[in-house]
Amino acid sequence: MATSQLSCLPADIFRSSAYGVTPSKLLGLGSFGSVYKGNLPFEDDPVAIKVFNLRRYGAPSSFIAECEVLRNTRHRNLVKVISLCSTVDPTGSDFKALVFHYMPNGSLDRWLHPEDHGCDKRRFLSLCERINIALDVAYALDYLHNQCASPVIHCDLKPSNVLLDLKMTAHVSDFGLAKFMCASSFEGRASSTSLASLKGSIGYIAPEYGMGGPISKKGDVYSYGVLLLEMFTGKRPTDKEFKDGLSLHKHVDTKFPQGTAEILDPAILQSDLLGGNLEMMQTCVLPMIKVGLLCSMASPQGRLGMGQVSTEILTVKRVFHELCSRNGVSSLDKYC
């Protein structure tokens, strides 16, 4: 949906308590602003309103970057913008906001780490849901990298930027750091963009960026690999145990494949792999872990492309459904 085709709403709508931009409706805080659950006069369903903190360095350019990406992309696994606001409020201050479809199941981060969000653990992500979410995110990145007229590098992929709708379909969000790449760039490198303009998230940012390397598709692939390992271990790449040269990648790699059960998220072991389902481990879990390891290699040249990642995970999904069907387990039983 083109940004130029969206109606630009007046700032007083967003500042009105009737429409939800109040502290009680706060959904989360980001690098450049706050996100609220709200309602708009012309929308029956609730929306998510991202209000930019323009006093924060980089916020105005983040708003522009996000608008540009949303104007040039359209995919089922990307967040969809409804409207925007770029104006001056009654105090004479600049005001910028974006309105998105509300995602009732929140972020992937909330599901992986409910204790950090004040949530209970009564409902875990099933193995099927983890596979589906991984595939959704892979499709989104494959689209951004390989199917847009000007390839897009997300630059900040992490669980909090993956949102889940009512059916647990994943949508990649937050394009405030995204970069457009010249389609003719050699091996997918965005040589025109300097490292100084990149501010990804610690633990997910590709190691070559820290050495002044160019922004590239393989940087997003690295972030995806870390995210995938986090989905299957339940551990953040920034957990305290990862120090003195030990990373999430190394933690998993040292146990793969024979000791994989030792580093899996206990929720997977307690549900889908209860009783030691070796076939499920061999044909579904191990291939997913392998993709995560290949994507999070230190060397960009060793990482997979997102097209290949999508193909690999789609194969795992098909195998999973075949196993469930053979064992008489319905998709509904697996929340899938």
Task: Spell out the key features of this protein.
336 residues; alpha+beta; Phosphorylase Kinase, domain 1; Transferase(Phosphotransferase), domain 1; 2 domains; five-stranded antiparallel sheet; two-stranded antiparallel sheet; 11 strands; globular; disordered N terminus
Q: In words, what does this structure look like?
A:
The structure is a single chain. The protein is of the alpha+beta class and 336 residues long. It folds into 2 domains: 3-101, 2-Layer Sandwich (Phosphorylase Kinase, domain 1), CATH 3.30.200; 108-334, Orthogonal Bundle (Transferase(Phosphotransferase), domain 1). It contains 10 helices and 11 strands. It has helices spanning 11-15, 59-72, 108-112, 127-146, 217-233, 248-253, 260-263, 266-270, 278-295, 306-326; strands at residues 26-29, 33-38, 47-52, 81-88, 94-101, 152-153, 162-164, 170-172, 179-180, 189-190, 215-216. It has a 5-stranded antiparallel β-sheet with strand order 1-2-3-5-4, covered by helices on one side. A hairpin with a 3-residue loop joins strand 1 and strand 2 (33-38). Helix 4 runs antiparallel to helix 10 (306-326). The longest helix has 21 residues, at 306-326. The two termini are 29 Å apart. The model is unreliable at 1-6, 184-188 and 191-196 (pLDDT under 50).
